[in-house]
């Protein structure tokens, strides 16, 4: 089966994800804009589409199933912010690889966090770079989109999925709760009962169930996903960037009225789980590859 990278290369010619920096020779402004960009370690970026107006970001920690460590999120926020302020870019795509879009927050990184650490550092504040983006962001999800990975997809404006994608909020298995919008955005997408089932069981749902629930707008064969997502971004790119931005703001208003209070509430509870023994046990058990022994404390 073709990888995301080979499919993109096939579709779009040279220079796709070849370098950590973008250097499409056909777009002088872009080269100029990104000539001073940092060399990314956890993501790859490129500019794609026949008009070179689609910013493509690939999460690139395949060995950790694209677990969302802080350095990855800092880079992702920077790439999104840069594409957002580049006038030649109409829409942005975030994707992973065939096995994982992202398997969640990096459990190993946050395993020893305390409640005070989270509050002091404003844990997850980098996520705001994604929600502050004025341009449309499309998630192209193949493989696992779990925990923070599912939340990242939901932060995007449209989710397209490959038919083997799996979505879930399995934080309950490791003694915590979703901390980047899962408890607030998921019910808005799929309704309370289904959201409760997903959050309280930690069970995964497949791409077709996710489409039926309204979480995903379309499902494609794995090897067609990126091609179709680029087509969608190009179609959006045929419209006025200003009106696209306003339309995005307006649709978001439907979701975001009252969302802020919910997110603040969610964050305080998420942080609070780091004061519990069960959260520590859950993450430690994951890292030690054993079943957790929860004590209800
Ligand atoms: N964090 C850190 N490492 C991970 C993660 C993760 N979330 N997921 C997978 N990995 C690592 C594994 O530890 C393993 O590393 P190693 O080879 O060094 O042992 C490697 O990726 C491959 O994983 P597996 O061997 O487990 O692969 P499998 O195919 O057997 O299983 C699964 C795939 C089912 C996806 C499994 O890896 C899994 O259950 N992962 C954890 C999923 C999870 O619980 N996600 C939620 C995390 S908590 C969270 O997201 C809180 C959100 C808070 C806000 C967001 C902040 C960014």
TrEMBL record:
Domain of life: Eukaryota
Claim: Lyase is one of the keywords in the record: yes
Assigned keywords, A-Z: Lyase
SUPFAM superfamilies per UniProt: ClpP/crotonase (SSF52096)
GO BP: fatty acid beta-oxidation
CC annotations in GO: mitochondrion
Entry annotated with the keyword Nucleus: no
EC number in record: 4.2.1.17
Gene Ontology MF: a single term: enoyl-CoA hydratase activity
Family, per entry: Belongs to the enoyl-CoA hydratase/isomerase family.
Protein name: enoyl-CoA hydratase
